[in-house]
GCN5-related N-acetyltransferase
Amino acid sequence: MSTAFFSYIESLALRTWPAETEEYHNGWFFRASGGITRRANSIWTSDGTGPWQLDDARPKMAEAFYRKHLLPLRYHISDASPAGLDAWLERQGYAKETPCSVMIADTDEVCERTEASRNTKIKTVVQHRHDPAWVEHFIHMEGFKSEAAGFYDGLFHRVKPDKGFVSLIDGERCVGAGMAVAEDGWAGFVNVVIHPQERGCGLGKLLLHELAQWSRDHGASRLYLQVMNDNAPAIRLYSSTGYKRLYGFHYRTQTSS
């Protein structure tokens, strides 16, 4: 696969997670959102350009941007970032954080591999927009602080492509949730979570099935997602449903001097 293809997938993923404030600088996006999530508070550098140039002016511009927003200077580095940028940041003392993988799959294959997970006991609810209850359930299952609800509410409103919000309901209790964003024949899955007390019971495959079905209904023949490399259970789940690793990314964060 080419760097240009990696950059294309990175561009799709960028639009699933729009920051509160974004500035475009010659292929890069400076992103700030009050410090909630690395993705929404880092410099997107996956423009697929050539080697890193030491005289590039963007790092100095980034310093001013993040100083203004009272945030640490953090870079999102992927296999589509300029060659040599990651090594340069390492030499400057930037700490490497949160290695992740981007995985892709065929929508029909995921639907087929997860078909057996369908469960008449579990009610599936699919919404084309989120509501306060969906956000509350998601925050609770992830174990996030309630203060994060405002950020996620704003995030979901800012997503422009078609989006679907799936909930798995067991009786009166939400036991799983996930979001799919469809664009240009692809769909990305984000904010995928199963209730901690229900993990390992097959609900993950059911949730993926419902998200893949929604994606197929909205014109997406291919799927992608991002997963942290230390999340072995999630990687096993995704691999079992047809996902394969495409490339990796991580963050580089400026450390205190």
The mean pLDDT is 95.
